[in-house]
Amino acid sequence: MCENKKPFVSIIVPVYNTENYLRECLDSILNQSLKNIEVICIDDKSSDNSLDILKEYSEKDKRIKIIENDENKGVSITRNNGLDNANGEYLSFVDSDDKMDLDACEKLYNFAKTNDQDCILFNAFRFNDDGKVWSSELHSISVSDHIITSTNILKNNEFIYNTTVTSKFIRKTFLDDNEIRFVEDRVYEDVLFSMELFFATDYVGVYPYVNYYWRVRLNKENKSITQSYDDTTNIADRLFIIHSIFDMLYSSEKYGILINEFNNKLLKIDYRHIINQLPFIDKEIINIVINKIMPVIKNMDIEAFDDLDDLLKLKYDLLISGKLENLIYLIKYELNNKKWNVKNSELKNKNNILIEENNYLKSKIEILAEQKEKFR
């Protein structure tokens, strides 16, 4: 990058104890085909060798700017610190255990300059240390397979599933003008950030021909935040963000029509992940699930459940009915029996869905007792 030349793109990288992955991440950024970039790496008081790796790389490449937090502040404050120090026309976020296509910045920058979008959504895949790569559930729903030059969340309701900040390319002045920042002291902060972004613009592009690679760590002792479903604070923060989005939707005449879509997303993704952890979490978290999630599910319109498969419907029925023992049995059975087939005709016939006066799903619970006996 030439001296005093404004960078086209600022890439913000929050770093915390990722020494095993950081080199791969930095290599994917510094070898971008677009050279006029700055890389803002914020070390959040790592206790491993992450900071040493950053310093090693910065000595070789002056495009790297290192910021050191004086204490561990969490990813929200760390990302905001990066935003406040960014000088590029556009922003991209990369987590320090992930990576991106080597031509990502060039393609996204050219697309943005041609079409003048505030934000561009691009594709993402999950991958692990064994080299396995598979589709990201959130992005397979929210990112189309064709280019869209300009749209918004009211025209493309599926954007409500696009909750990761790392698969967005954003105009810096758009964020500053709308004072969009990450809510601090919470995890899953990028979910609320994404919704605020979608509510603030009618100029969103979709460019599916760029890929971000989102790591799933195989080391159970070093899980990422998004893999820590069984952590009490994690679940509490996830619920805080969810309720903040509900507040936004219910208070907006323009975007209130997205409530059912958001409910459907919660049932398919967020609540599903939490409920599937019930066999492995302590009573404190189970009480959070019962006291916080169950009332929300009970108040959902029936349409929110329409697209769910039979097995997931059954899980919510059991939760609502307070049949936790049966629910936990079903989850364990599903995990232990890979050939469980939710399209089985007998199961579908017995899983009769009833709509009662209180307007929430109710299935015949006797099915679990029958299945329990059958599979003993």
In words, what does this structure look like?
There is one protein chain. This protein is an alpha/beta fold. Strand 1, helix 1 and strand 2 (about 35-45) form a beta-alpha-beta unit. Strands 1, 2, 3, 4, 5, 6, 7, 8, 9 and 10 form a 10-stranded mixed β-sheet that branches. It has a two-stranded antiparallel ribbon with strand order 11-12. Helix content is about 40%, strand content about 15%.
Describe the secondary structure blueprint for this structure.
Elements: E1 9-15, H1 22-30, E2 37-43, H2 50-60, E3 64-68, H3 75-84, E4 90-93, E5 99-100, H4 104-115, E6 119-128, E7 133-135, H5 137-142, E8 148-151, E9 168-171, H6 172-177, H7 189-200, E10 204-216, H8 232-250, H9 259-275, H10 283-298, H11 310-320, H12 324-336, H13 345-350, E11 353-355, E12 361-363, H14 366-374
Parallel strand pairs: 1-2, 1-4, 2-3, 6-10
Antiparallel strand pairs: 4-9, 5-10, 6-7, 6-9, 8-10, 11-12
Helix pairs in contact: 7-8, 8-10
Provide a concise account of the structure shown.
Helices cover 42% and strands 17% of the residues. It is α/β, with parallel strands linked by helices and 376 residues long.
Gap from first CA to last CA: 66 Å
Tell me what portion of residues adopts beta-strand conformation. 15-25%
Instruction: Let me know the largest β-sheet.
Output: 10 strands, mixed
The radius of gyration computed from the alpha-carbon positions, rounded to a whole number of angstroms, is 22 Å
Order of helices and strands: EHEHEHEEHEEHEEHHEHHHHHHEEH
Query: What are the low-pLDDT stretches, counting only 5+ consecutive residues below 50?
Result: 222-229, 345-369
* Shape category: globular
Which structural class do you get from the secondary structure elements?
Answer: alpha/beta
- Provide the helix percentage: 40-55%
Average the pLDDT over all residues and give the rounded result: 86
Helix count equals 14
